[in-house]
# Entry
Amino acid sequence: MTVHTSWRRRAALSTAALACCATALAGLPAGASAAPSPTGSAAAATFTDDFNGPAGSAVDGGKWQVETGDNVNNHERQYYTSGNKNAALDGQGNLVITARKENPGNYQCWYGRCEYTSARLNTSGKFTQTYGHVEARMKMPRGQGIWPAFWMLGADIGSVGWPQSGEIDVMENVGFEPGTVHGTLHGPGYSGSGGVGAGYTLPGGEAFADKFHTFAVDWSPNKVTWSVDGNVYQTRTPADVSGKQWVFDKPFFLILNLAVGGYWPGDPDGSTSFPQQLVVDYVHVTTNN
# Structure
């Protein structure tokens, strides 16, 4: 298998700067086992957003905050905008995060005048959870340099920093791998290129942008299991971090974003069309059975 190295992401989060990264091991085949069911008498919904509302409206501010700014650490090219400029409901039960090749606000990025806009949302200060089933149904964008992600950070990042906070990447996709997504753990001593994870590849040359797919983790003490469309493709435990500290037994919050460019996906090129959209049908979190 091939190791893909990615780099740190950063955006302002209230008073604390967030730092994170994404690393992946590509192309493990889907496991034959089915993901644990998130439903049952002992499971309870703790976070539900089905993105119902009028077309063009912003996300529920009681559940999400919208980050703004650029991202120098990962050398991404977009500027994350506020409100509903790049993240809005479509009136059909979806959240649409749109990356555009534009700069109507004369936004300034680490490399000069920004070339692209997009959006990044998180639940810090609004929702955190320790353990459970975390799931989103989404349809990916496509194209060189396009990088959607659904992930989690330890809620103590403001006090302990990253990677001590821990990071659980539920799903990442880079445009040059249209049929593969990645799930990764990052912590102290296994972050960046040393992150612990694997990839899941669709059969028959399918692309994740062709239709909706469901991405989930089942998270319990000393164990995180990833699945796509109910197919488990990896499970990680403290044994996988080679004696280093396991930092995943505490509250985490959720993040959704669509990046453009960066060290891992590379920059868009002449083959990349805009706008590109990450369409999110729902985000659901339940307790464990």
User: Anything to note?
Assistant: The radius of gyration is 17 Å. The first strand starts at residue 3 and ends at 4. Helices lie at 157-160. The mean pLDDT is 89.
